[in-house]
Write a structure and sequence with these properties.
The complex is a heterodimer of chains A (about 120) and B (about 475).
Chain A (H helix, E strand, L loop, with lengths): L2 H6 L14 E8 L2 E8 L4 H7 L6 E2 L5 E2 L12 E4 L2 E5 L10 E3 L1 E2 L16
Parallel strand pairs in A: 1-7, 3-8
Antiparallel strand pairs in A: 1-2, 3-4, 5-6, 5-7
Chain B lengths: L4 E5 L3 H12 L3 E5 L27 H15 L5 E4 L3 E7 L2 E5 L4 E4 L3 E4 L3 E3 L12 E3 H11 L7 E5 L3 H11 L7 E3 L7 H7 L1 H6 L1 H17 L3 E2 L2 E7 L6 E6 L12 E4 L2 E5 L2 E3 L2 H5 L4 E4 L4 E4 L12 E3 L8 H22 L10 H17 L18 E3 L4 E2 H9 L5 H8 L12 H7 L20 H5 L10
Parallel strand pairs in B: 1-2, 1-7, 2-3, 7-20, 9-16, 10-11, 10-16, 11-12
Antiparallel strand pairs in B: 4-5, 5-6, 8-17, 13-14, 14-15, 18-19, 21-22
The chains are: A mainly beta (about 120), B alpha/beta (about 475).
Chain lengths: ~120, ~475
């Protein structure tokens, strides 16, 4: 899936209700670079990513890409690197202004093979 | 000596009511829950900043149930030590329950422990089910209820029972296009024989039936095709879900040649019923039995929720699927029993206090017993899991690898797990154990996997930061 195609689906219409509360952005960095994703106080990182048209944020050990699956913290498929912590569940982490979300490869590496800044935790 | 303490795990309808009841009867109550806010999966609450918004006619009954539940909980919430963002990691005995949040862990004791951990969705794997964009039907609901976000623009659903229909209608109301809902059989058809045999069950379930009718009407008005007796064959796409392929099946789950149909979709959602979260009860030593319709390995319990372990109770869907309405009543009944045990070593002491809930629970149970048949999967459904299909998503174990292990004689679930690593990843087997059990040969469903400490992944930092129990529930 190329990046332009994945982002093209990002429309405000994935948020069907009139929304109150303060909007802000989180930073999502995948293999192609970093972009700001709109988010709302209290929603999950996964909700913000999906609303913005992102569907994958991890490469599994077998090389396949993964994103959200169960949405309730059971399956751990949506794990990624959040604020430097690998294996953080996007569906269980609330978005906060400026939060850093990075694509995870395998057990917790960055796409370039490096270790995330937050260290192993 | 400190007050008698009831520990409740899970803050869904059952856990909320159990905690409220035990607090009302004078116990110190600790309510441990993974989520930031009570409600469980069914009444998942959005954060305050996202609350509000219009409630459609079809969604109103659920909103009303939720309001009643929260009103009842609120009356006793002040007496409950609610610990959100916290999970039970291990149970070494009722006097040694290890709980952990993001940064710390502690051992707590309970005079009575109520496991109200609910259930999670079961999905039968098909080729392509690990693609991004493939989710569970419940995930669609969780995103909508918890974040007011719909997962995609064009959402196809497939599976068994009523959940795919309800989730599809909710997605339509949220503005998505739903190209198809493909069900293994009409979810209403298994209902009729049971309901006609027992008209009281029909009467008891009239609310749920009319609610289902409202959701079906939403689909009908939107022109969504609901295809029954159809089976999902695969999901495909270039790096993410782009289409769902389905076919008619022969009644046993085998596709009828020449009936394949393809539906373009950016999101594909599956549900094939539920699996009870029974691992905490099993780790505490409760006896279990296998019930494929109501959630797999279920703790054996009596009408008070008492298990084979003195002082250990199970409430709500963790004891077998019966839905949120029954779970709330059951929680109130089990909460009274747990309080009786904690205070007087007599689970029946406060039975009269929960008589109304017991009677209402009986009505819901009667209806749900008829409904349970709609989750019975066709006999040969797992024949569609191709050799190359990943069964264990965490460890990347394929059907072919499982079959080889079974052929080599590893036919029990624990043996299969040890031989293939299937079920040993981050999810603790929650995504694959039902499939493994179906593929594992004659012993597969008889034997639950061992439930060991570390039931939820926990950081070393939290384990190392062990704090004292003194502040809990006093």
């Amino acid at each position: 899936m190329d990046r332009a195609a994945s982002s093209a689906a990002a429309t405000p219409s994935r948020r069907p209700d009139v929304r109150e509360g303060e909007g802000f952005t989180i930073l999502f960095e995948d293999r192609f670079g970093q972009r700001a994703i709109p988010a709302w106080a209290g929603e999950s990182v996964a909700a913000a990513l999906l609303a913005a048209g992102e569907r994958a944020w991890r490469t599994a050990e077998d090389g396949s890409q993964r994103g959200l699956f169960c949405g309730i913290g059971v399956c751990w498929e949506c794990r990624c690197i959040i604020d430097g912590r690998p294996n953080s569940r996007a569906c269980q982490t609330e978005a906060r202004p400026g939060l850093s979300v990075r694509w995870q490869v395998g057990p917790g590496l960055l796409p370039d093979g490096g270790l995330p800044d937050g260290g192993a935790s | 000596m400190s007050r008698a303490r009831v520990v409740v795990v899970g803050a869904g309808p059952a856990g909320m009511m159990a905690a409220a009841q035990a607090a009302r009867l004078g116990c110190a109550v600790v309510l441990v829950d993974e989520a930031p806010r009570p409600g469980g999966q069914i009444h998942r609450q959005p954060p305050p900043s996202l609350a509000g918004g219009a409630v459609s006619a079809a969604a109103r009954p659920e909103a009303e149930r939720k309001r009643r539940l929260f009103d009842r909980f609120a009356r006793h919430a002040g007496a409950i030590d609610h610990r959100p963002g916290t999970s039970v990691t291990a149970i070494y005995g009722l006097d040694r329950i290890l709980i952990a949040d993001e940064t710390s862990s502690r051992l707590i004791r309970a005079d009575a422990l109520v496991v109200a951990t609910g259930l999670h969705e079961r999905v039968v794997p098909v080729p392509g089910w690990t693609l991004p964009g493939v989710v569970t039907a419940g995930a669609l609901q969780a995103l909508l209820k918890g974040g007011r976000v719909r997962a995609g623009d064009r959402i196809a659903l497939a599976g068994a029972g009523p959940l795919p229909l309800v989730a599809a209608a909710q997605m339509v109301e949220a503005g998505a296009t739903v190209p198809v809902v493909a069900l293994l059989r009409p979810p209403w058809s298994p209902l009729w024989p049971g309901l006609l045999r027992d008209p009281a069950a029909l009467w008891a379930g009239r609310g749920v039936l009319s609610e289902g009718w409202r959701w079906l009407s939403v689909l009908r008005r939107a022109g969504v095709p609901v295809l029954t007796r159809h089976v999902a064959l695969s999901v495909s796409g270039d790096g993410a879900a782009e289409r769902l392929v389905i076919a008619r099946h022969d009644g046993r789950g085998r596709p009828v040649p020449g009936t394949e149909r393809r539906f373009a979709a950016d999101t594909v959602a599956f549900n094939h019923g539920f699996t009870a979260n029974s691992e905490l009860a099993r780790m505490a030593g409760a006896e279990t039995r296998f019930d494929p319709r109501r959630g797999g390995w279920l703790p054996v319990r009596d009408g008070d929720g008492a298990t084979s372990v003195p002082g250990l109770f199970v409430a709500g869907d963790a004891g077998g699927f019966a839905g949120g309405l029954a779970a709330a009543c059951d929680g109130a009944v089990v909460g009274a029993a747990a309080a009786g045990w904690a205070l007087h070593r007599d689970a029946g002491r406060f039975a009269a206090q929960a008589a109304a809930d017991r009677a209402e629970r009986a009505r819901h149970w009667t209806f749900q017993a008829a409904l349970a048949a709609s989750w019975e999967l066709p006999r040969d459904i797992h024949e569609l899991v191709t050799p190359a299909t990943v069964v264990c998503r965490c460890e990347g174990v394929t059907r072919a690898r499982i079959d080889r292990a079974v052929a080599d004689g590893h036919d029990g679930l624990n043996g299969l797990k040890r031989n293939t690593r299937a079920g040993m990843g981050s999810c603790g087997g929650r995504s694959c154990l039902r499939t493994l059990a179906a593929l594992a040969g004659p012993r597969g469903e008889g034997e639950a996997v061992n439930a060991r400490p570390g039931i939820r992944p926990v950081t070393l930092a939290a384990l190392a930061n062990r704090v004292s129990d003194e502040s809990v529930g006093s």
